[in-house]
Design goal:
By secondary structure, the chain is mainly α. It contains eight helices and six strands. It has a two-stranded parallel ribbon with strand order 1-2. β5 and β6 form a beta hairpin.
Amino acid sequence: MLHQTVWIEDDLIGGHPVLDFLNTAGGRTKLRDVERLTDFPTFLEWAVVADVLSEQEARDLLAREQNDADAAQAVLADTRRFREALHALLMAEQADLEWPEPERTQVIDAIRQALRNAHLESDGDTYRWATSAQQSDLELPKVRIVLLLEALLRSDDLARMRNCERCSWLFIDRGRGRARRWCSMAACGSRAKSAKYYRRKTTKSK
């Protein structure tokens, strides 16, 4: 599997932190053959960029990781497994298909566990489920992602979720006509247009 660990703007095109999390794997095709969460510190860096963790929380967790690298690696491995199970579910959801097993059970169990250890906090005129490092320790970024997922599944954005026509990435299409086809015009959109141009040129030359 290839690896990428530098976060750029095009890595955060999902329109929701949960989808940006799913998009930490996968490359230029439908295969999930590029891994971006290469180690626990990289996961923390992504979580800060995606507004899942504060910089101070990331620094605190990094210190804990340095004291127990094996535990942090186990959390990362579990997080990757959860990511791929969730990707399978949401790919089915956006295609209007039944959620597959055992991924459905894995994701539901993760939501139940996260809610069991969460607390309600005010978020303006509404409330949201939240958790802290004291409650979740090294699993804090994963638990926050799960809580964000629970909210996403109950939101109007779920019906706006789309899969890029060229790769495995998911995004929320909030456009008026919901005609967005690519995760990013600068990435898959540009490559698709280049491929279409090449096919036309090849056809004309025959």
